[in-house]
Every structure is written in C-alpha cells, then in structure tokens.
Design goal:
This protein is mainly α. Helices cover 55% and strands 2% of the residues. Helix 6 packs across helix 8. 25% of the residues are buried. The chain has a two-stranded antiparallel sheet with strand order 1-2.
C-alpha cells in the first residue's frame, strides 16, 4: 500500500521542499491532513483539488484563531473569491506559520492578515478590527469607544514612524523586530 508519498510525485515533493520552509515529513503530513478534509472519493486527486474554506476552518489549529477567516483569505488563490484552498495554498500557509520561516516572511503575512481592507496600510479601521478580533465581539469583552480610541492612539504613537496616521509594512516590521516573541507565537503546527 502506498502512503501519502506515492500521491505526491517525487519531483513535486522536491520542489515543495525548495519553495517552502517545510521538511519532506512536514509536507507529507500536510498532504495527509489536507486530503482528509476532502470527501473520500476526491482524496486520490488531492494534489489538484480545492478544499472549501468551511472545511479548512475545521482544523483544530485554525478553529480557535481569531483571524481564521483572514488567514484563509490571504492564503487562498481562489479566482472565485470563496477562500477555498488548493494543496499549494495550504502548504504556503503552513510554511509561513512554521518555526523555520523568517521573521520578515512572518511579519509580511501578519501585516496582510491585519490589513482588513487590503489597501496596503493599517489605518484606524484596520486597527479597530484587529483589536475586536483579539478581544472578542461579545458585549462584556468589547472596549468602549474611549478605550478603543486610546488604544489605537497608543498603537499609532508607538508604530507610526512617519506620523501619517497609518502603519505601513516597514513600520509594522520595525515594531515586530522589537518583539522577540513574535516569530515563535506566529505559528501553526500540525
């Protein structure tokens, strides 16, 4: 009986190793986990299948993440905008969230995840959505308007180097570079 390795051509497996921060074993485990998200009849062709976002979100590693929807959106290459993932999308996501990914790569993708309106900057609206994701949407955990304004002001004072009222990628990366635990906390391990 062939395992996961027989379903990924050897040359493709080598290519995945070169293009990601994942080992051969991690890629094979990712393939196994990805194919398990598909209906049984589609598992043989998992390499070319797309898994719906709703199935991706059943992974325990994403289920509790407050940014689960943004993560799927940022890593999905779906042309229909449904945030479904191909195996290569899934590998890219796991690669970025792996221990081996560089801080620059991790901070680049964190910025994209936090840039809710995808305009290339973190403005007050993005920061408010980010805080709401972290604190929860319930009435008891929601910050008051004054608390939210003060928090956003503090974030901008700390991060907005050019004082334009927004945080660009380089400002974000500068802040992250001063946070020694960022790289180790920005991870998903299967």
């Amino acid at each position: 009986m062939g395992g996961s390795a027989s379903l990924i051509p050897r040359d493709l497996l080598g290519e995945y190793q070169e293009l990601t921060f994942l080992s051969k074993q991690e890629i094979l485990l990712a393939y196994k986990r990805f194919s398990e998200l598909l209906p049984k009849e589609e598992r043989e062709s998992a390499i070319s299948a797309r898994v719906p976002k709703s199935h991706i979100l059943t992974l325990p590693e994403l289920r509790a993440n407050p940014f689960q929807h943004r993560i799927c959106h940022v890593f999905s290459t779906s042309e229909t905008g449904d945030d479904s993932m191909s195996f290569e999308d899934f590998l890219d996501m796991l690669s970025v969230f792996s221990d081996s990914a560089t801080s620059d790569i991790k901070s680049h993708y964190a910025f994209r995840i936090f840039d809710f309106d995808e305009d290339g900057i973190l403005d007050r609206k993005d920061l408010e959505q980010l805080v709401n994701c972290l604190t929860g949407q319930g009435e008891e955990s929601r910050l008051s308007s004054a608390e939210m304004e003060q928090l956003i002001q503090n974030i901008l004072e700390e991060s907005d180097i050019d004082k334009d009222g927004t945080i660009n990628l380089s400002e974000f990366q500068h802040v992250v570079s001063r946070s020694p635990d960022f790289a180790s906390s920005f991870k998903i391990v299967l």
